[in-house]
Amino acid sequence: MYTLPTDLIVDILSRFSVKTLLKFRCVSKSWCTLIRSPEFVKTHLSVAAKNKDHTHHRLVWTENRDLLTSRDIKQHVLRECSVSSLHNDSVVESLDLNYPLKNPELRVCIVGSVNGLICLDIEDNDLVLWNPTLRVYRKLPDSRLRLSGGSRLDRITSVMYGFGYDEFSDDYKVVGVRCSCTRYPLEVKIYSLKNNSWRTKGDILEVVQLTKPCKFLNGKLHWVNDMNGGFRNYGNIISIDLADERWGKVEQPDYGKKNFSLKLEMLGSDLSVFCNYKTMSRNFMTTSHADMWVLKEYGVKESWTKTYSIKYSPNVF
């Protein structure tokens, strides 16, 4: 019987969706071994990332709903839709996701997503790495970063997580940072999926308060370092390289001298920043407008470009 060359089989199979590949594993032992191999997984991820039709991409987000009985009680869910449908369809259907440890009464947060894996933080308590396509997950061991005390100082101490992929060691990592302006020292721990364990990172960059969200780019995790409680005219964007685990800073554009707050985002494959400007109105601090800056070339300060400027209605904020 004629057999196709392995390279050609890989080229053909790498163009199918993961769900279809799961069915193809039943064709033969050789196909099953091929599809399970790390080399094929990397090839499939590379092909999917270059797919301009986004047929293999899904958009996943959190949604908080008021229950009919009370506006004080929220129902927390994850929803998804096809990215290709956003481009091609006039009406887009979104669906509820059955995620691990699902409980609508518990708040769920998406820490990050890399190569089809999603890191979830459930009620600031349980961390989960989840593959929604394969419907498998791993609950991470306790990082012991979160304080269990009931004092007011304990409650204002926060833990920020970031999730990314270390290409050098072929490992997925979660970085947890305990931030506090109280008596508790700042502490950093790094989780390795390969080792399924946390370890404490010794050298620590001086941090006041990291803010969500964390963005993964160029092998590094990025946060905004809040220098003055969300209303300031100065702030840092700090990063940690998942390969050598060194801290760094991203040079920023000139936002002006007004009070503002920063929020990290991604525009395509570029790091971007929403700069929300604050003004006093009737003794309240409100957001007047926002500028969106995009870093066109990573590491080059001069490549920051102001792409959008949005003026807010005074009745919105």
From TrEMBL:
InterPro entries registered for this protein in UniProt: F-box-assoc_dom_typ1, F-box-assoc_interact_dom, F-box-like_dom_sf, F-box_dom, SCF_F-box_component
Gene3D superfamilies per UniProt: 1.20.1280.50
Position of the signal peptide: none
Pfam families for this protein: F-box, FBA_1
Coiled coil: none
SUPFAM superfamilies xref list: F-box domain
CDD domains: F-box_AtFBW1-like (cd22157)
Stretches assigned to the F-box domain: 1-44
Protein name from the UniProt record: F-box domain-containing protein
